[in-house]
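User: Reviewer 2 asked us to show a designed sequence for the structure in our supplementary figure. I'm pasting the C-alpha cells here. Could you produce the per-position amino acids so we can include them in the response letter?
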C-alpha cells in the first residue's frame, strides 16, 4: 500500500477534479501491474494497472488507495473492471466520500465474490487526497499558504525588493509544491508589485497549475505576464460585482476566465471564492500572497496548511510584513497550527504547519 500511495502522489496537481489514486497489483508475491490517475483524471489508476497486468490480474491481490468507483462517467466503473479481470482480493486504503460512490464500489466487489479489506494506511491515504475529501465534504478547495520570509518575518524591503530573500534550493522546492497543487493563487497587489508568472519551471511538468488572481475591481496592470500568457496557461480571476467593465473585457479577451464573487464587507468573500473554485474542479490551492490576501484567508479561518521558508537575514520593521493586519486583541484569538515537518533546504529552513482542530500532533524534525 505504501507503494500505491507513492504512485498516487504522482497525480497530485494534474488530475483534478479527480482524486490522485495509486494502484498496485500483486500475483504470487510479484508486482505485475502499477498505475496512478493520469493527467486530466483519465484513465484511472486501476485501469492503468490492469492494462499493465493483463492476464496476470486473474486471482491477484489489488492494492488501491481509494475505493474503486462504481458509477459510469467518462469511463466505465473501476469496480466493474476489477470484477471482469477476475481478481481475488482488493485491499482499499480508504472509502470514497463522493456520494456517487460512498461504499457502492466495495459493495459491488463483495457481491461479485471478491474479498475486500478496507482501512490499510487509511490516515496516509486521506492526507494524500485531503483536497479531494475537503471539496466533497465542505464544498471548498483546500488552501496551503506559502510564506518565504526573512528571519524577522518580512517578505520585502520597504522599497518592495524581494528577489531573492530565500536561496535557489528553496525556490526549486516551491516550484515542486506548485506542481503538486491544482492552482497557484495571489492577490492583485502581488500582480502589480512583482508581475509574476506563477508557472512551474525547470521541472519538466506536463500540466501547469491554474493561476488564480483575487482582485475585487480587476485593477491589474496591462501587458502583465499573466495577461500575455493567459491563452497558454489558464488564468482565473475572482472579482467583485463592481469590477471595471473595460478591464473585464480586456482580460476575457486575453483568455482569462472571470469568476464573479460576492463581497464580505469591502472585500471579496474568500469562502465564496474557494467554493466557486471547487465547483470548477479545483481541490488544492497554493496561495503565494501577498500579505493582504494572506491576512484575509487567516482571518476567515480558510488556511488549512502553512508552508514557510525562513532565510538567515533580517530586514527590519520598515520591511513589508508577510501577513497583513489581523486585528487580534489577545493571543487566544490567534489560530494555532501544529508543526508537521521542519528541515534545512539549502541555506534556508523549511517548516510545514497543519491546521490543528484542537488536536496535539508530534512534529517531525530532520
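Assistant: Here is a per-position design you can include in the supplement:
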Amino acid at each position: 500500500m505504501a507503494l500505491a500511495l507513492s504512485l498516487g502522489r504522482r497525480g497530485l496537481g494534474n488530475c483534478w477534479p479527480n482524486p490522485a489514486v495509486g494502484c498496485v497489483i500483486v500475483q504470487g508475491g510479484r508486482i505485475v501491474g502499477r498505475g496512478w490517475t493520469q493527467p486530466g483524471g483519465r484513465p484511472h489508476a486501476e485501469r492503468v494497472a490492469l492494462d499493465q497486468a493483463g492476464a496476470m490480474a486473474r486471482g491477484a491481490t489489488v492494492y488501491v488507495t481509494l475505493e474503486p468507483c462504481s458509477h459510469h462517467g467518462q469511463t466505465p466503473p473501476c469496480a466493474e473492471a476489477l470484477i471482469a479481470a477476475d481478481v481475488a482480493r482488493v485491499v482499499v486504503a480508504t472509502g470514497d466520500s463522493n456520494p456517487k460512490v460512498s461504499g457502492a464500489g466495495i459493495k459491488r466487489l463483495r457481491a461479485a465474490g471478491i474479498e475486500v479489506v478496507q482501512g490499510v494506511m487509511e490516515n496516509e491515504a486521506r492526507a494524500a487526497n485531503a483536497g479531494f475529501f475537503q471539496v466533497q465534504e465542505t464544498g471548498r478547495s483546500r488552501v496551503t499558504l506559502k510564506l518565504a520570509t526573512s528571519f524577522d518575518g518580512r517578505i520585502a524591503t520597504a522599497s518592495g525588493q524581494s528577489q531573492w530573500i530565500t536561496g535557489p534550493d528553496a525556490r526549486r522546492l516551491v516550484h515542486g509544491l506548485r506542481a503538486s497543487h491544482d492552482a497557484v493563487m495571489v492577490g492583485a497587489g502581488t500582480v502589480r508589485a512583482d508581475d509574476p508568472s506563477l508557472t512551474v519551471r525547470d521541472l519538466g511538468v506536463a500540466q501547469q497549475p491554474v493561476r488564480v488572481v483575487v482582485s475585487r475591481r480587476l485593477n491589474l496592470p496591462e501587458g502583465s505576464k499573466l495577461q500575455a500568457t493567459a491563452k497558454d496557461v489558464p488564468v482565473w480571476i475572482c472579482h467583485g460585482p463592481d469590477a471595471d467593465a473595460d478591464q473585464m473585457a480586456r482580460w476575457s479577451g486575453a483568455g482569462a476566465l472571470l469568476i464573479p464573487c460576492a463581497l464580505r464587507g469591502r472585500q471579496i468573500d474568500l469562502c465564496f471564492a474557494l467554493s466557486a473554485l471547487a465547483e470548477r474542479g479545483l481541490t488544492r490551492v497554493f496561495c503565494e500572497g501577498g500579505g493582504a490576501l494572506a491576512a484575509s484567508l487567516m482571518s476567515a479561518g480558510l488556511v488549512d496548511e502553512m508552508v514557510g521558508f525562513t532565510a538567515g537575514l533580517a530586514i527590519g520593521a520598515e520591511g513589508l510584513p508577510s501577513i497583513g493586519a489581523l486585528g487580534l486583541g489577545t493571543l487566544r484569538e490567534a489560530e494555532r497550527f501544529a508543526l508537521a515537518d521542519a528541515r534545512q533546504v539549502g541555506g534556508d529552513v523549511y517548516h510545514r504547519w497543519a491546521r490543528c482542530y484542537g488536536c496535539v500532533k508530534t512534529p517531525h524534525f530532520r
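For the response letter, you might also mention the following. Confidence is low (pLDDT under 50) at residues 359-366. The longest helix spans residues 168-179.
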